[in-house]
Amino acid sequence: MHYLYIIYSKSLNKYYVGESHDVKKRLEQHKNHHYKSNFSRIASDWELLLQKQLKNREQALYLEKFIKRMKSKKFTEKVINDPKILDNILNKK
Fold first, then answer.
1. Do the Cβ atoms of 32 and 19 come closer than 8 Å?
2. In the sheet where 2-9 sits, what is the strand order?
3. What are phi and psi of 13, to 5 degrees?
4. Which helix (H) or strand (E) is 1 found in, with range?
5. 89: which residues sit within 8 A by CB, 6+ positions away?
6. 18: enclosing H helix or E strand
7. For 18, phi and psi rounded to 5 degrees?
8. Nearest to 15 by CA among 81, 88, 85, 91
9. Over the chain, what is the mean pLDDT?
10. What is the band of 27 on the pLDDT scale with cuts at 50, 70, 90?
11. What is the pLDDT of residue 2?
12. What is the pTM of this model?
């Protein structure tokens, strides 16, 4: 199993979209600045808002890139409020 996740930093008022096979561990890495070159290093108050289980890493990467290409906070918020959007995106692939 693999997951797409969206986390949010209240202090930055920003979202971060990622993929992982272990979201809990990955969230801790974000909070502890494990990846020094990662955007998420600029905050420590990340909270998990969405975790979507997928069949494989390929699907997770596809959705992650799709969301990031949108470059839209509103679109990210729509996905958080209605995760079925992700299924629709995969079905149109």
1. no
2. 14-20, 2-9, 46-54
3. 55, 50
4. none
5. 63, 66
6. strand 14-20
7. -150, 180
8. 81
9. 94
10. very high
11. 97
12. 0.92
